[in-house]
Amino acid sequence: MTPGTRTPTKTLIVVTGPTASGKTALAIEIALSLGCEIISADSRQIYRGMSIGTAAPTAEELAAVRHHFIATLPLDAYYSAAEYESDVLALLPHLWEHSDYAVMCGGSMMYIDAVTRGIDDIPTISDGVRQNVLAEYESHGLEHMVRWLGEIDPESLESVDLQNPRRVVHAIEITLQSGTPASRLRTGRVKTRPWRTVTMSIDYPREQLFDRINRRVDKMIADGLETEAAALYPLRHLNSLNTVGYKEMFAMMDGTMDHDTAIARLAKNTRVYAKKQLTWLKRRPEVHYLDPSKPLLPQALSLITPD
């Protein structure tokens, strides 16, 4: 702490980690213990109509503790990490009027970084730019978009995940909207926040985590994922549905993948996503790891209230 600065009196507790690691259950336990509310940090649970495929909190879990940013947006709404940062920063003072704590729970690492570390000042993308870039992608595909990005912002080719259409499209949008290459706008500077942040993750061995993922996929199918996806099929072009779980179901409905292959691919792609989340965690030395073989709540509370 720099001399002359005040010790933060409020604490943001971040429960993050790979998918299927038990974040929601732990976040609810912590919130009930501390008498506070939960802020979802999931870029897909924020949309309505996707509760099964996104493993959103159940009605019982939502009733146990008040959650924010769950099923609040229509599927066709544009929503960015920058907007999430702004919305959470506006919400936190209201939550802290009633408690010294707030829990953030989710595995959308860009959302978590936006709140805890700050996000670069990226312009809001206009509807016109977004529609034009999306039309180009839908007409010509990802390879064309990567070439386009290389022409207008070659430095982004080194930092953007070129296998992720959303990342490539967004880099092009930013460049066109701002008139400046997106790579020049991304400074990576960490912003100072006026609160204390405690970040934790449940540290399952990889084999156990993958088994939990496989069982979650089985439960999603049993809970009606195929029916949910069928209802969303006419909207499959929307960016909100370009995500693991729905892409595989839509492929099955298109006839490009049989039923068993679609489910196996869903489980495989979820495990790949979990690996990416684990990679993010490794780059964050501030993360505290909880031992799932022992009661989780006492471990968490010892980090939050060490005295």
Key descriptive features of the protein:
6-stranded parallel β-sheet, Histone, subunit A, 12 helices, 307 residues, Rossmann fold, alpha/beta
Specify the structural class: alpha/beta
Percent range for helical residues? 40-55%
CATH superfamily of the largest domain: P-loop containing nucleotide triphosphate hydrolases
Beta fraction of the residues?
A: 5-15%
Radius of gyration: 20 Å
Keywords: ATP-binding, Magnesium, Nucleotide-binding, Transferase, tRNA processing
Family: Belongs to the IPP transferase family.
Cofactor: Mg(2+)
Binding site for substrate: 19-24
Compact description:
With 307 residues, the protein is an alpha/beta fold. It has 12 helices and 6 strands.
Structure description:
- With 307 residues, this protein is α/β, with parallel strands linked by helices.
- The protein has two domains: 11-120 and 195-304, Rossmann fold, CATH 3.40.50.300; 127-185, Histone, subunit A (Orthogonal Bundle).
- 50% of the residues lie in helices and 9% in strands.
- The protein has twelve helices and six strands.
- It has helices at residues 23-34, 59-64, 81-95, 109-116, 127-152, 165-178, 182-185, 206-223, 225-232, 246-254, 259-282, 296-304; strands at residues 11-16, 38-40, 67-68, 101-105, 196-202, 287-290.
- It has a six-stranded parallel sheet with strand order 3-2-4-1-5-6, with helices on both faces.
- Helix 9 (225-232) crosses helix 10.
- The longest helix has 26 residues, at 127-152.
- The chain is globular and about 60 Å long.
